[in-house]
Specification:
2 domains, mainly alpha
Length: 104
């Protein structure tokens, strides 16, 4: 009888401990998903001075450009990069889809 109660108490302790650990992992995953920040999706890459200067003269200061609309160079450059990156990614995605269609 004593051995049976000892085994039962050990089993219950093991179950309680295991559920606490597994439950904690789920809570950590939920917490991680709830605190997603902009930094999680940020990218940093170097931009040469000559490349920026060319953009500034040829894109930002062009006739009817963002300079005349009183948009800051930082915001204008950010928008320019977003357009360029999205255009390139769209081009690569279409190319990949065409390759997959040709394989099928």
């Amino acid at each position: 009888m004593v051995v049976s109660l000892g085994c039962l108490s050990c089993a219950l302790f093991y179950i309680a401990l295991r559920s606490k650990v597994l439950g904690n992992k789920i809570t950590v995953a939920e917490w991680d998903m709830n605190i997603v920040t902009v930094d999680d999706y940020s990218v940093e890459f170097p931009i040469s001075y000559t490349g920026y200067s060319e953009w500034y003269q040829n894109q930002f200061k062009k006739e009817g450009g963002d300079y005349q609309k009183n948009i800051s160079p930082g915001l204008s450059f950010k928008r320019y990069l977003i357009r360029k990156i999205e255009k390139q990614l769209t081009k690569e995605l279409k190319l990949k889809q065409e390759q997959e269609n040709n394989e099928n």
